[in-house]
């Protein structure tokens, strides 16, 4: 785009206007450019608030477990040992929010284990006793033909003085939390030092990186920034106003007229004060918001000075198209704008329920973030077990359950089914309180009716009562002929 000034947007020709639109809508697919754009988006208060809201709801403390992330296993010794590691060494309660926020913002997060850091080892600390979250701007996870090779730390970052045997770090140097949709891959050529020599050779690898939860809003953010800037420029340029002074000069000649106008201008636009410290008479211009004054001599007019105002005719409230793009942006963020303080009307029932129940898309986003955190914690646990020579048994990583509207409906539906079952059983008890009048055939028919009524479809008795799948009544009837 040519060097058009801020006041010349409306004067752009067709080619310049199309170039401006293309620059706004064009998105770079390079990993470094994406990270820079995500970082820029986080400087916007609305975007940062949305990302923090998702991260907070994804890492809520579970009151029953008393933890944000914990492990369950049939091997209680292993369970206790891993939970102690997560709480004490890794400090999961302090890092959970930061992990989730990085995952939301960048689609990935790297946890430095200091496995190959010689300075770390010389400090007296043991590997596995300290972890640090690193920005994806400085670290890349490399693959070759689908297999993980290690981590590459870019030279321009703050780890440039790190002493390692190779420029390519091992798989144990970082834990990679990644929201991978299988789309983000990038080729890179890395210089690797040959083992046992000072020779260096170049090898090609593939960078595997995550998909940010802000990706859908990236293009809309650029549009939003452009519109905000144009709005500010329009407000500044159109809000300028001028005061036009009509000064009665009578029959004065041109020289006398200039003198009269100068005296009036100095009296209006400047102030004089005495500087007691310096003992001088100071003069300063009167503060005027925008625009300026215009002085016009008048002859044979009425009154000595007449003042009119022109300009300042901008109406920001009339720019309704800004709201259209704002609504699109909030939709891409998956956070209702009412929860970010951008609308006066609030969703109904806000005080009675949570955002995860009010907005199913938001709830599913939080669940996806939890899934990424759980997978990363599993990699961390496997790393810890490898370091401690522990063979891990079957275990599961848990986080607080995110309650959604679908979950609430499922619970309510199940409660209604159980209530119907209770009413039917009460009816059976009234018909045959002693259990002597209903034979096996009648009981089978009644039970089949009850099952179909509750579940809405025929079910096998054995499947429902834990026995083998069969069409005849299950073990519940083997105690006798009656209910």
Characterise this structure.
A hairpin with a 6-residue loop joins strand 8 and strand 9 (200-208). Residues 1-8, 158-166, 348-352 and 463-483 have low confidence and may be disordered. The protein is built from 14 helices and 15 strands. It has helices at residues 14-25, 31-42, 45-58, 76-89, 92-106, 118-122, 218-238, 254-269, 321-333, 355-358, 360-388, 405-431, 440-455, 461-464; strands at residues 69-73, 108-112, 132-134, 139-144, 147-153, 168-169, 174-178, 185-193, 200-208, 241-248, 270-275, 280-285, 292-298, 305-311, 395-399. The protein folds into 3 domains: 25-218 and 364-399, no CATH class; 244-313, no CATH class; 405-477, no CATH class. With 483 residues, it is α+β, with helices and mostly antiparallel strands.
